[in-house]
Amino acid sequence: MSFRRNQSDLVEQLDKLLSQGNQSWLLGAGTSVDSGIPLMVPLTNHVISCITEPKHIAAISAIQNELESNCHVEHILSHIADCRAISERKREKNIGFGKANFTTQELDDLHGRLTELIGDTIRWGYVDGNSTENPRKVGTYSDPIVTIENHVEFMEAIFGTRQRNISERRGAIRFFTTNYDTLLEDALALCCIPYWDGFEGGAIGFKSHRFGSKENQSNGVRAHVVKLHGSIDWRISDDGRIWRVRDHDSYPDSSRRVLIYPQSTKYLATQRDPFSGQFEQLRNCLHSDSENLLAICGYSFGDEHINLEIQQALDQRSNKTTIIAFTSKIQNIPDTWRNSSWSNRLYMVSSDGVFVKGTDPIVCEPDSEKWEWWKFKGVIKVLKSGPGEFLK
Q1: Which of 59, 204, 322, 340 has its CA 20 to 30 A from that of 383?
Q2: Do both 120 and 191 map to the same domain?
Q3: What is the pLDDT of residue 30?
Q4: Using CA atoms, how far apart are residues 308 and 261, in angstroms rounded to an integer?
Q5: pTM of the model
Q6: Are residues 82 and 169 in the same domain?
């Protein structure tokens, strides 16, 4: 079989997979960066620069000195959470960071301040400028810089181009995301696509879906949004009730933002609602015994909990899930995936071409624009025009 024939077959396979009715998406931070929401390193730098309380500054500096040099704000928050657990077991109910001792309440205050800054930065946007042509931008409540055009175009490409003529639709398309922003939900609403996210209500909603609950299978619902790490508009009360609320409302009375961090505290956190229910939906989707597509975009494969859920599901002999992973380099994808028994159902669309088990990369022309099909904008182009647009 010639190279050109291999290339033609691959285009047809990818195009067919992206058009099938039973599909889900796993989306990470890379899908929101062009919308004005920073990746982890600039987010960390900005959030820490906004800390003004001297005792908090000293604590963060001490924590950074204890952790790896490449630690980011999620590592810092996990460390604070771990230290809080230790302080609660101690007789004095405190723990030291550097030369300062922190009570349990002071640790809660520091954790809350960091999550508040993360939420504000993601809601209003931040661009870490590195040149005169690309200046630093800080979004605010009165002057937000976050844009939604890419996400609207993404939804239009899926539901308007890919799903328009599907005769056998197997339920809603599921969008699993590790992002805290609300761009997916907002884009679905702007495109007038009915979706379900586990909440009921209006501008203020309450989370009705819990671990063990059935998903909304209504014929009118075309999308499910599952936020694996929480959201900037989720709040939790002392008695465990969870609301989706508007920014700057003084009610309902709630103690903190609901956010989760994929580090050392993840296992405990994902055993409780709301996150146990979120991961249960991912697990149920992956363990499908019918033909099913999981497309991955903007995800760095840095969350071992999610990676393990995917691997364990596809390791099952009866599993029929196929993965299309859009990534800058195939080295980003876990070795256990690339060397697994199911790697023939793993399509890796990278800057170096497309890789499938047992094949050399099928690459595109040496044109710089054509190598960026793994980025969010490139994925949108693939959905709208087909992968053949890059493999001419």
Answers
A1: 340
A2: no
A3: 95
A4: 16
A5: 0.88
A6: no
